[in-house]
Automatic annotation (TrEMBL):
Designated name of the protein: proline dehydrogenase
Gene Ontology BP terms: L-proline catabolic process to L-glutamate
GO terms, molecular function: nucleotide binding; proline dehydrogenase activity
Annotated organism of origin: Aneurinibacillus migulanus
One Pfam family hit: Pro_dh
EC main group: oxidoreductase
UniProt catalytic activity: L-proline + a quinone = (S)-1-pyrroline-5-carboxylate + a quinol + H(+)
Binding site for FAD: M141, Q169, K193, G194, A195, T232, H233
Amino acid sequence: MLTPQVQAAQALKSIARSEHIKSYLQQSEELYPLVLQAAKRFITGESRQDGITVAKEMIRKGYAVSLEYIGENIKGAGECHEAKEEFLQLIEEMGAASINQTVSLDLSHIGLLVDTEITYTHLVELAEKAKSYNITVMVSMEESSKTDDILDIYKRAVRHYSNVGISIQAHLYRSVQDLHELMNYPGKIRIVKGAYQEPCNVAIPRSKELNDRYLQLVEQVMEANHPLSIATHDESLIQQIEQRHCLARSHVEVEMLYGIRPDLLKNAKDNGYTARMYLTYGQEWYLYLCHRLAEYPENLYLALTDMIGPPATDKYGSY
């Protein structure tokens, strides 16, 4: 029997994919600002300047950062082009501000559902611009049905641009073999547990088995001395990885999402490890918020508090 927490997480993941609910929220003059207030715990804001501002503050505090303009599953060629242009402008402004860090993106934001060749062209254009500013472009992973296309495009791009990296979802059974092959390429590898709801024959559910698989993948990359981002908010996993003396290595970083377990990321930074904060901005925050709540349903209580309470006076106090 499923626990209430698991049931809540599954419901939130279903809601995340409901275009009807999303459209209703976006058109509601009453609901939209309330839910946006809750979303701002996890996003920097809706504008590029919001992202840049928070990035500068976090860098001042000693963190590395990764910036993303939120969006995915775009089906129009014009919209994909606009998203690519926004990423180019983001990279330009980061470079001008000497934020020589990381930009993250979903390939379905820049064309994956339109045409794989367009997507590849857009990714290469972004990688070229990023290279001139010593910025890394990290490709995120999406639903398992997109994995083959994402990996194919990444492998083509990274042959020419070593500043392009890739994410791997530990919960997918295929990831062990995928990771073995990816270590033949120079790009950084980010290991996540996986946020998407997948069939049981495709992915491992949240469990000790999944935690063991995550550790296995981390060790696989560590032994190869390959650039690695350990992206998790699981305190137990982080402690186990730290006990294995993995975090102090120069090619390893800990990466966490803005607004989730700031205490853990601050502790990693204070211990001298490279601590990277994943910052997002944009108006397409609905799906992102639902995923953050689904990962830890107790965040629903915080969301309700954020919607009815006054804004925090010190947005960065936890860091």
